[in-house]
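User: Second chain of the day. Same drill as before.
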Amino acid sequence: QVQLVESGGGLVQAGGSLRLSCAASGRTFSSSYAMGWFRQAPGKEREFVATTRWIGRNTYYADYTVSVKGRFTISRDNSKNTVYLQMNSLKPEDTAVYYCAATNVPVPGIRPDTFDYWGQGTQVTVSS
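Assistant: Same format as last time:
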């Protein structure tokens, strides 16, 4: 089993920045796990934000949904089993609960059901 704990959410004004963290633990977790960030706004379905997956040696591939490209950056520190989501130039439409997810599937999709483990979520609120 894998446990994920998010932190770093909060209230920020439009144009501001936040950094989310997700600490992973568990006997089976390793640096080869794909990690992702999803978000869910009130009344909406959970949607893909970003993912980082291992593609060989010490190289990881990152992918983003179109609406956050150029503003959000996903990264990971394998020595700490932690993945980050740096969010810059935040907009009110970024307001949502943000969830960290993990899977040992090498190339997961962007649908939530392609990830096996989930954190509890952290609230991000962007005021206009």
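The chain has a mean pLDDT of 96.

User: Great, on to the next one.
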